[in-house]
Amino acid sequence: MPLHLPNAAPADAAPANAVHGGPTREAIRDAARRIGPHVRRTPLLRLSGTDLGLPQDIVAKLELLQASGSFKPRGAFNRLLSQTLPAAGVVAASGGNHGAAVAFAAQRLGVPAEIFVPEITGAAKRARIEGYGARLVVGGAAYDEARQASEARAAATGALLVHAYDQDEVLAGQGTVALEWQEDAPDLTHVLVATGGGGLIGGMAAWYAGTGVQVVSVEPEACPTLATALREGRPVPAPVGGVAADSLGARQVGARMFAVAKDHVAAAVLVPDDAIRAAQRLLWDAARVVAEPGGATALAALLCGAWRAPAGARLGVLVCGGNCDPGSVAG
């Protein structure tokens, strides 16, 4: 069942200039200008409900076509371009997509990168990180262990730490997804977004706050990070597992995003792994889009009924990543 939040912005509220604890709209606009030369403006794909077996059409934003295969370069570039880069370069921890993005950004900006990944990170994501010239270090069984190892390494070397989701510049960079989406599809009433550590939905909710667009969080049942935090009233550790753990398997959401989400995420829903796999297959069958499990998670909420659109809703669904073996989807 969805967790509905009583403080979600009313439809007639004026656009917010600032969101408590999150990036301002001006910070997101600044991020868009800063990163514009380095990232892609990703396309929209309008899919009919008939083709999807759903009662409504959707407007999918294809962030899996972003450089490095996910939305992550937006936050990575904004962090790197907002700082003086040390000779030691940059360090990050990641289940895969953030690491690839940081490695890509560091390569483009001419600085070394060291990326810590957990053992669960798949071969395709490891290869992409190394392909961008970064040094890859396997740092524990799960993301949180890799994060701790990366923080220790940054402290020891003086490298710039690029957090996957809990830094101001990262949230503002990810918020540019919403800025673009609103410009290109201004008629949407609801957007569905997969949540892991929360940098993406935190930045997007900060942009959409007060506009009348309702932001819905979708998480795997096996990684209920935001749903757990909302139930407890604060970020707390949650289980990590399932098919999307390499991209959505943060142990707990960031404090910065939670300050936004508690007031500006309209609902938080959980979906089973079989619905995520079904969403992957449907994206392939209906649109020849190869999404990784995390990238298909938002659509899974519609397929399994975890979230049902109200009458008259105009839906956006974010396809946020595509770093997987295509044979695992299309075979």
Summary tags:
Rossmann fold, four-stranded parallel sheet, alpha/beta, 331 residues, 2 domains, disordered N terminus, 11 strands
Report on the structure:
- The chain is an alpha/beta fold.
- The protein has 2 domains: about 5-70 and about 165-330, Rossmann fold (3-Layer(aba) Sandwich); about 75-160, 3-Layer(aba) Sandwich (Rossmann fold).
- It is about 45% helix and about 15% strand.
- The chain contains 14 helices and 11 strands.
- It has a 7-stranded mixed β-sheet, sandwiched between helices. A 4-stranded parallel β-sheet has the order 6-5-4-7, sandwiched between helices.
- Helix 1 packs across helix 7.
- The radius of gyration is 18 Å and the shape is globular.
- The model is unreliable at about 1-20 (pLDDT under 50).
